[in-house]
């Protein structure tokens, strides 16, 4: 696999996983027992924990990318054959 292809695949995987991880453990201010101030969305999380979610996203993405690299090296996944022109 070309390094540029690997980086692009990792970036796509990372963003997809981030959007899957973001809703985990979210509790709104009202669910925490607080008061929503004027101008604040009622659905805003009380503690977003963005750094923790980014670390989790990076670990999951690295594991998935490792599986893709192994599948590509073993021959189970062949990007060149998939995009080759058919005769």
Explain what this protein looks like in three dimensions.
By secondary structure, the protein is mostly helical. It has one domain. It contains three helices and no strands. The protein has helices spanning 3-21, 50-74, 79-83. Helix 1 packs across helix 2. It is elongated, with a radius of gyration of 20 Å. The mean pLDDT is 89.
Q: Radius of gyration in whole Å, from Cα?
A: 20 Å
Number of distinct beta strands: 0
Domains counted in the coordinates: how many?
1
Largest sheet: none
Q: Tell me the number of helical segments per DSSP (H or I, 4 or more residues long).
A: 3
Question: Helical percent range?
Answer: 55-70%
* Class based on secondary structure composition and strand pairing: mainly alpha
Low-confidence segments, given as residue ranges, are none
- Chain-averaged pLDDT: 89
Strand content: under 5%
Broad shape: elongated
Which sequence of SSEs, written as H and E, runs from N to C?
HHH
Distance between the termini: 24 Å
Keywords, separated by commas or semicolons:
mainly alpha, 87 residues
Give the secondary structure arrangement, pairings included.
Layout: H1 3-21, H2 50-74, H3 79-83
Helix pairs in contact: 1-2
Provide a brief overview of the structure:
By secondary structure, the chain is an all-alpha fold.
């Amino acid at each position: 696999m070309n390094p540029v292809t690997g980086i692009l695949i990792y970036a796509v995987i990372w963003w997809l996983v981030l959007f899957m991880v973001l809703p985990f453990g979210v509790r709104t201010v009202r669910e925490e027992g607080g008061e929503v101030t004027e101008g604040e969305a009622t659905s805003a999380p009380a503690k977003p924990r963005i750094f923790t979610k980014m670390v989790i996203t990076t670990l999951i993405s690295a594991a998935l990318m490792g599986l893709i690299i192994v599948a590509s090296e073993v021959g189970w996944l062949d990007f060149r054959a998939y995009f080759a022109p058919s005769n």
